[in-house]
Amino acid sequence: MRVLFTVFPASAHLYPVVPLAWALQAAGHEVVVAAHEGVVDPDVINNITKAGLTALRLGRKEELPDALGRHTGEIKPDRPTLAFDPKDDDPDTWRLARFFVAGMLNLHYPTKLTEDGRRPIVDNLVQFARDWRPDLVLWDPLVLPAPIAAKACGAAHARLLWGTDNIGIIHERTKAELANPIPQKPDEDPRLTLTEDPLEAWMRPLLEAHGLEFSDEMLLGQFSLDLTQSRMRQPLDLTYVPVRRVPYTGAGEFPSWLHKRPERPRAVLTLGMSRRNIYGKYSGFPMRELFDSVADLDLELIATLNSDQLATVGPVPDNVRTLEYIPLNQVMPTSSAVIHHGGGGTFASAVAFQVPQLVVPLPMWDEMVTARYVVDRGAGLVVDPEGLDVADMAKQLVRLIEEPSFQDGARGLYEDMLSAPAPKDIVPVLERLTEQHRG
User: Fold this and answer.
1) Structure confidence by residue, pLDDT tens digits, 138-197
2) Are 248 and 21 in contact (CB under 8 A)?
3) How far apart are CA 167 and CA 220, in angstroms?
4) Which residues are bridge partners to 322 per DSSP?
5) Complete domains list, the chain, with CATH
């Protein structure tokens, strides 16, 4: 069968789907991975081909509205984002996230016609689907033109969840709110006032342009492949197909200094690829102070920093090695701890190699959920990014390395990971579901 993947234009969204795409190719299926060039991550198309997959370029970043570049350039750690904690009792947290999801979608996939009467990225995807005729479309939850393309060509379609199902939670709560409106507070942020589902309102003109109508399936898929661990899944009445997340973090030459285990414990500091591109020097980590705090410790720290971050750091201690980029799959096997921002890719790599985690969550999607899960399972510790105490952070890093209980917790996460079907084992499931749902 023919399988079309659609990914949001960032490598952090591409990498989770690569092992499943490989598995489908290895089983003899045709695979194409579609994306448009991103403002934050312009290399996403190249990274598709570097992974040995066929890439479809849906559009160039020049076709995106100027407002998207300004929006991205203004992002800082203290700005509201798409993140919210499902356990937070304050409805304003997820309502504000709903507003940002709708706004971000409108920036990436504008509903207004261009001068030549087109909506470039959406129309390109729909036209390709009608021409190529995929049997199955697997789509990133933030690429909502994908179910439109699937419907337009009669393909089965499903979401591929790389994190907590925030869209599912928002949609369920939005329907409940429309049925029983939340009383408006005095001087309430007007963005929180709800008269209709903002995601449905954004999607409607795109659907109508292709002769389609809105349904829950257009936001949630006919089913969802879920790469998150089962204990992290939210209690939603949806069809989830669990898939083991096999970490892929890009390709690169294997450096000689990583061929054998280090002489002293090694820790890794990473902010994730997309995150550091967005924040730049606003990383949320006091790098200089952290390096100073570990200078006298009996450990080696590997830090992946971009040029903006390195410019603010200055000279580094002898036991700190800074790199622009290294695939985590190369460095994790010889590491005793990892410090990270709570992103799903780093979490998955740490789980796969049973590495205890020190999470300093920088919220953009579900980082607080991940941090709490790591702590609850005894696989690591969390540091509050507000008023971060670097000396205390260094002490917690030492605890992760020296206390055996954290290694036990990391082993538990690894065993949970193995309980989900591997990508190769999910291929026959997808074949059956495609036959069931295909138009």
Assistant:
1) 999 999 999 999 999 999 999 999 999 999 999 999 999 898 877 767 666 666 667 789
2) no
3) 8
4) 303
5) 2-245+420-437 (3.40.50.2000), 256-418 (3.40.50.2000)
